[in-house]
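A reminder from the course coordinator: this example appears on the midterm review sheet, so study it carefully.

Given structure:
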């Protein structure tokens, strides 16, 4: 018998439901969230920790009787905010150094990996030179493959701002690559 009139059972049922929901989200999105965070901070262990923090925050959010209409964009936004908070705390010297060094793909040969790294080094140097807002939009839209609406939701911007920032970011990226002589059209 509970003294709270059965409310403990309701809370327990809500907790189980939230747990199951977040486990489902984790199964579906954890790898993508991890990769997104890893691309921003270049530290595999810390990316794992921040991914875990993202899903803990998602659990806490749902546990407080809040509904999530779009889990993918909700999780990307949480991951973005958690990562930005981490970056602000540690003040990195270079956020995008060795961008490809943490990506593991057992499919390609060693030669093709070396070729990809050599040919794309200038791209990541150029990304590193961009303003953080340009870099974020390019990462989310072009590398993570999010839609304009999803990117807007993740960053807390309007769709128009995402479109204009993406346009300006790509223009700045193209200009930087052309300046370095690495633009191959």
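Designed residues:
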């Amino acid at each position: 018998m509970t003294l709270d009139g059965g409310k403990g059972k309701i809370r327990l049922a809500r907790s189980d439901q939230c747990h199951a929901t977040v486990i489902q989200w984790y199964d579906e999105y954890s790898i993508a969230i991890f990769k997104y965070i890893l691309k921003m901070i270049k530290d595999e262990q810390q990316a794992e920790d921040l991914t875990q923090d993202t899903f803990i925050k998602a659990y806490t959010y749902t546990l407080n009787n809040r509904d999530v209409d779009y889990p993918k964009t909700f999780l990307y936004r949480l991951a973005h905010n958690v990562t930005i908070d981490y970056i602000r705390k540690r003040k990195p010297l270079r956020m995008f150094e060795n961008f490809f060094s943490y990506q593991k793909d057992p499919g390609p040969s060693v030669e093709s990996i070396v070729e990809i790294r050599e040919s794309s080094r200038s791209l990541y140097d150029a990304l590193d030179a961009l303003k953080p807002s340009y870099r974020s939009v390019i990462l989310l839209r072009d590398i993570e493959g999010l839609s304009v609406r999803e990117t807007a939701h993740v960053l807390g911007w309007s769709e128009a701002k995402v479109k204009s920032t993406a346009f300006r970011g790509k223009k700045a990226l193209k200009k930087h690559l052309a300046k370095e002589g690495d633009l191959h059209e």
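Residues 92-101 have pLDDT under 50 and may be disordered. Helices lie at 7-41, 44-63, 71-90, 110-129, 132-143, 148-155, 159-180.
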